[in-house]
Specification:
Chain A: One of its GO terms (cellular component) is cytoplasm. The structure holds 2 protein chains of 2 kinds. In chain A, helix 9 crosses helix 10. Chain A is globular, with a radius of gyration of 26 Å. In chain A, the strands form 3 sheets. In chain A, strands 4-3-2-1-7-6-5 form a 7-stranded antiparallel sheet, covered by helices on one side. Chain A has a 5-stranded mixed sheet with strand order 10-11-14-12-13, with helices on both faces. Chain A has a two-stranded antiparallel ribbon with strand order 8-9. In chain A, a hairpin with an 8-residue loop joins strand 1 and strand 2. By secondary structure, chain A is α+β, with helices and mostly antiparallel strands. Chain A is built from 19 helices and 14 strands. The model of chain B has no long low-confidence stretch (mean pLDDT 93). In chain B, the strands form 3 sheets. A 7-stranded antiparallel sheet of chain B has the order 4-3-2-1-7-6-5, covered by helices on one side. Helices cover 40% and strands 15% of the residues of chain B. Chain B contains 20 helices and 14 strands. Chain B is α+β, with helices and mostly antiparallel strands. Chain B is globular, with a radius of gyration of 26 Å. The chains are: A alpha+beta, B alpha+beta. At the A-B interface, helix 8, helix 9, helix 18 and helix 19 of A face helix 8, helix 9 and helix 20 of B.
Chain lengths: 549, 549
């Protein structure tokens, strides 16, 4: 509380830049966790902005009508305020600047957030998603893959989880040797196993090959991975970096696998740009969304100039390449970039979504996000998750019936990844998270989302629909990619879409469910509870109906 | 029979048909007077029936004795025919070229087409001005139906009956007509029931360089204003273009002579510019090898989306003047047959819920496009693949449909029809078995005796069997004015038309079906529950204990 200089400012204007007549007057409150704007109107509408979501606060020179202040959020919401007194504006600015920049983990909102849950429930909630169960679902451990204790107490690699899945045929010495030959010890480990073909996706960091170094352990490790797929005679090593970047790394003693040293590997460069390029590109895209009254040319030029969709396409192309290798050619793939987080996590996650219908469900997407995050995301703010979520959104445009969740779910996930309200996205790796005792001190997001899943359900999703089955094969021609208005077009509230077909359909489905209940109450007809099965249930009900009368 | 002379080779066997995203079909190619037909000899006959009139241009290539004809259609599809034998190929190509560019309207297919369905409701009677006027009379008595143009001599491009202010006699109308381009004096386009404001349309006034004026014209439009009220003249051209028009005898209303009117200039492009824009857009959409940068830059350079934005913005402005400002509006550009009609018809879709029903939309096209004298035959003679200098071709109507699609997408529950109806109108405007879009104005259609010699498109569309395809399952009648967003990020590329042949629509079609299922299932349940409720109520009133042992 000591950071709040002015807890309340009256007669503040909230400006809607696109439609000035929609601007409102109200009172601004600062709490230890939120900025709250309460409209003076009869409805007393409230806008809550979490301090931890604030990206930056900018003040503009005072003019006769007051002091303008712009609050930009990490989820791309922008709030434009006009504060009558310059002094109040400066106080708000100073308070918000401090409150939105926690100086230590303890200051994060998740450590004070207390949703009235007892200890037992909280612990249970943390078990909602379990990585071991996830590997069991894929059929692991099996006669070819198992858990190794090599990273017990994080002694092999401190940014990996302690339990790693590796080929059974890889001896402990090979595992240790391979880790030594990989940047930051991030040896090749299993990321996804495709039951239909026995092909796998493994991930690692770049090898410390330089210009001529080699490691027979690492070579044996890859051989073991390849052999774990009995039908295949080679494997792909997908380096997600542009080839030039990968070559430049050789001078620093890193680089990529020499095809002469490894038997039966095919090296493939994909060309996803690095995190600095991505961050730049995203900032340009955000700027496009903030343009005041842009012309169509301004907008399209800005979109092109940002390069954002080009990067999204590159990530999706990487996923498509890997998915095709695994599902169609039955070939295992090892994916790496430099350190094996950003681009590797993205490419593996996108491939998994394409390959496995489970990851297109609400719970499945939670699993994949937690999974991708757990694996040592670096500390700096990066649009890696944003890009993954956007790839999923782009896929939803091409396959409207394939996903159990809707756009709102993606946006909600995005907000929570940055909000620090829940402990799920705090810390950079398992070790750090364990050291912070997150499970005792914070709450988990997943059960909260799961309880509200009705809100996040895609009405067009049916478990028995053909789009729900099998591997997705999206078209990645440039014209298939769209500007994600729901995410990046939110700077102004009046651009919000007018009517949502999905919401209409959800309302209809809800009503159908009630009608089904009423019918069955009248008739005592057995009824399947899943509304998605409704159409098929229907024939049954009508049959019973005729019998009853 | 003159067609036989043009068909040098009526039939070739062993022709391969290639279409993007569809399997190759081998079969027999036949040419008739109006169709190009390809039928495979397999029993599950995959057939292609293509109207010659739909062919925009062809290209031929030879590799050895195998000839290839690439047929580019006005509906934007591109197909490839591989024809064995050089002579056959050349014959087919020259026949197609001749048959697809017939000059005489009376040789067009609609004059030969005999419907295989019974015409229950004659579409030529869809819009009867007298009946529309009766509706108007029930709301206001300030208008009359004038027969001044009954022999099309006052204005050749107007219909015979026109709605004009009651106090203006036919003699004044003639004088006003001589002061407007093409005789298109101001007439009523739309009456806004809510506040009694009106939208009029006309062509530019012939002020010329010396500022000619016409008292009758001034009186005519002033007669539409309530006492003490001001109106808006929306000139669809920029002030610079309007100024230049003076040199050619045209011009715009001088403030001094029209003191009760405020003139606003917008910047809708002229038709030849629009044609160029279409050609560039389709070229960009058809190249699947484009990188993201190149695609976006070509999309931007085509200016198509800018045109959509400008037209919609102008329509919103007209609607805003009427509904929000409570003022009457006069719309014109140069000829009053292109941009003027785009604006007046779109403004009506925004303002009038009736225009968002299928019937109402058909009437709107009939009233504001066909009868209002949009030169369909000239504008739709060629589409995006026209090579050679465009004469008077322009995608004016297609842009209108695109704008309707944009509104429909933003208000998916407010239209009784779906996107398919718009695409169908686009196809039929360019090539059709129906006579509706033949000719350039009512006078020409009367002369061609279209209503006796051809079938109306509306006779076919309005059959219940056909209508089903065009119904929007989400439609909830909505009596409100709908305000579309014209922000660049809210306006999308109309994929249903421009990417139609460049991707598979299977998954999107499935989503539509799913939507229909959900809604239909709900309706069935409602019916059942209602009938059960009725039966229950009946049982209760009868109070007869129906006990079975």
């Amino acid at each position: 509380m000591e950071h709040i200089r002015t807890p309340k400012v009256e007669n503040v204007h909230m400006i809607d830049r696109l439609t000035p007549r929609k601007s409102t007057v109200g009172t601004l409150y600062l709490s230890s966790t939120h900025t709250i704007f309460v409209e003076n109107s009869e409805a007393r509408k409230e806008t809550w902005v979490l301090h931890s979501l604030v990206y930056n606060v900018e003040r503009f020179p005072t003019n006769p009508s007051g002091s303008p202040l712009i609050i930009r959020c990490k989820n791309f919401h922008v709030y434009r305020l006009l504060i009558p007194q310059e002094r109040d504006c400066l106080d708000v600015l100073a308070s918000l600047t401090r409150l939105s920049r926690p100086e230590c983990y303890g200051e994060l909102f998740c450590f004070s957030f207390n949703p009235n849950l007892d200890k037992e429930l909280r612990e249970k909630a943390w078990g909602f998603i379990d990585l071991k169960a996830e590997f069991n679902r894929m059929g692991i451990p099996s006669n070819l893959w198992h858990v190794t204790a090599a990273n017990h107490e994080y002694r092999l690699c401190d940014t990996y989880p302690s339990e790693l899945f590796v080929p059974k045929s890889a001896f402990p010495a090979v595992i240790v040797g391979s880790a030594k030959f990989r940047s930051r010890g991030r040896l090749p480990v299993l990321s996804y196993f495709h039951r239909d073909t026995s092909a796998s996706i493994c991930r690692s960091s770049q090898p410390l090959s330089g210009f001529s170094a080699r490691s027979s352990d690492d070579e044996q490790m890859l051989q073991a991975i390849m052999k774990s797929n009995p039908i295949s005679e080679f494997m792909y090593v997908v380096d997600t970096r542009p080839k030039l970047n990968a070559m430049a790394n050789r001078a620093a003693g890193k680089g990529y696998e020499n095809e002469d040293h490894y038997t039966n590997i095919k090296l493939q460069f994909i060309g996803i740009e690095n995190i600095h390029v991505m961050r730049n590109s995203q900032q340009k895209l955000i700027d496009v969304g903030e343009l005041a009254a842009p012309s169509m040319s301004d907008f399209l030029w800005g979109l092109e100039n940002s390069g954002w969709l080009k990067h999204i396409k590159a990530v999706l192309d990487a996923g498509v390449f890997i998915a095709k290798a695994v599902a169609e050619d039955g070939v295992s793939v090892l994916v790496h970039c430099s350190d094996g987080w950003d681009r590797t996590a993205q490419a593996c996650s996108v491939a998994s979504v394409l390959l496995d219908p489970y990851y297109r469900t609400i719970k499945g997407l939670m699993v994949i996000i937690m999974y991708a995050h757990l694996d040592g995301d670096p500390k700096e703010v990066s649009p890696v998750m944003d890009q993954f979520l956007e790839c999923v959104w782009q896929l939803m445009q091409q396959f409207p019936c394939a996903f159990e969740f809707n756009e709102r779910f993606l946006i909600q996930l995005h907000t929570h990844i940055y909000s620090c309200q829940y402990g799920n996205f705090i810390g950079n790796c398992q070790k750090e998270r364990r050291d912070l005792r997150l499970q005792e001190r914070t709450h988990s997001l997943w059960p909260h989302l799961w309880e509200n899943r009705a809100e996040y359900t895609n009405p067009l999703y049916r478990t028995d629909h053909s789009q729900t089955q099998g591997v997705l094969k999206p078209l990645t021609t440039a014209y298939c990619f769209k500007f994600w208005k729901g995410m990046y077009g939110r700077a102004e509230k009046s651009v919000a879409s007018h009517q949502s077909p999905a919401d209409c359909l959800n309302a209809v489905r809800e009503e159908s469910q009630q009608l089904e209940e009423e019918l069955s109450a009248h008739q005592e007809v057995p009824r399947e509870t899943d509304a998605g099965q409704g159409i098929h249930t229907h024939a049954y009900i009508s049959h019973m109906y005729h019998q009853a009368f | 029979m003159e067609f036989a002379e043009l068909i040098k080779t009526p039939r070739v066997d062993g022709v391969d048909l290639h279409r993007p995203f569809m399997p190759t079909v081998e079969g027999t190619l036949c040419l008739t007077g109006h169709h190009l037909i390809l039928s495979s000899r397999q029993d599950n006959t995959e057939e292609l029936w293509l109207l010659h009139a739909n062919i925009d241009s062809i290209e031929k290539r030879f590799v050895g004795s195998l000839g290839t004809i690439i047929v580019k259609c006005k509906d934007l599809r591109v197909i490839q025919l591989d024809i064995p034998g050089m002579e056959e190929c050349l014959n087919i190509a020259s026949s197609i070229e001749a048959l697809s560019t017939l000059d005489s309207v009376s040789l067009m297919y609609p004059f030969f087409y005999r419907p295989l369905f019974e015409v229950i409701e004659d579409g030529w009677q869809l819009f009867v001005p007298e009946e529309a006027f009766k509706d108007l009379e029930s709301m206001t008595d300030e208008w009359r139906l004038s027969e001044v143009n009954k022999d099309f001599s006052v204005c050749p491009s107007y219909p015979s009956l026109l709605t004009v202010p009651k106090d203006i006699d036919d003699e004044s109308l003639c004088k006003a007509a001589s002061f407007r381009h093409g005789g298109r004096f101001p007439v009523l386009s739309y009456y806004h029931k809510k506040n009694g404001m009106v939208m009029m349309r006309a062509a530019q006034p012939l002020t010329g360089t010396n500022g000619r004026r016409c008292k009758e014209d001034e009186k005519l439009i002033n007669a539409t204003l309530c006492a003490g009220k001001r109106g808006y003249i929306i000139d669809t051209r920029t002030i610079a273009v309007a100024q230049q028009a003076k040199a050619r005898g045209g011009g715009f209303e001088q403030e001094a002579n029209y003191p009760q009117w405020r003139r606003i200039h917008k910047a809708i492009e002229r038709s030849n510019v629009l044609q160029d824009s279409l050609i560039k857009l389709v070229e960009a959409c058809n190249d699947q090898s484009h990188s993201m940068d190149r695609w976006l830059s070509k999309l931007e350079a085509s200016n198509w989306q800018s045109n959509v934005k400008e037209i919609l913005t102008t329509a919103c402005l007209a609607a805003q003047c009427i509904d929000r400002e409570g003022a009457s509006v006069l719309v014109h550009g140069t000829e009053g047959t292109d941009s003027t009609l785009q604006v007046t018809s779109l403004a009506q879709i925004i303002l009038d819920p009736a225009c968002r029903t299928i019937r109402g939309f058909e009437v709107l096209i009939e009233r504001e496009w066909l009868q209002a004298g949009h030169p369909f035959q000239q504008r739709c003679a060629q589409s995006a693949y026209s090579n050679g200098k465009p004469r008077s071709e322009a995608p004016v109507f297609l842009l209108f449909l695109d704008c309707v699609w944009q509104i429909l997408r933003q208000f998916p529950c407010s239209f009784q029809f779906n996107e398919n109806l718009l695409i169908m109108f686009f196809e039929h405007a360019y090539a059709s078995q129906f006579g509706t879009f033949l000719g350039n104005c009512v006078a020409e259609r009367v002369k061609l005796q279209l209503s006796q010699k051809t079938v109306s498109l509306w006779s076919w569309v309005n059959r219940p069997q056909e209508l089903e395809r065009f119904l929007n399952p989400l439609y909830e009648p909505n009596n409100l004015v709908i305000w579309p967003s014209v922000a660049p990020q809210s306006l999308l590329l109309w994929e249903g038309v421009f990417l139609r042949w460049n991707r598979s629509t299977k998954c999107l079609d499935e989503a539509c079906q799913e939507m229909v299922h959900i809604i239909e299932y709900n309706k069935e349940l409602q019916n059942k529950v209602n009938s059960l409720r009725r039966q229950l109520a009946q049982l209760e009133t009868e109070e007869s204990p129906l006990q079975t042992p």
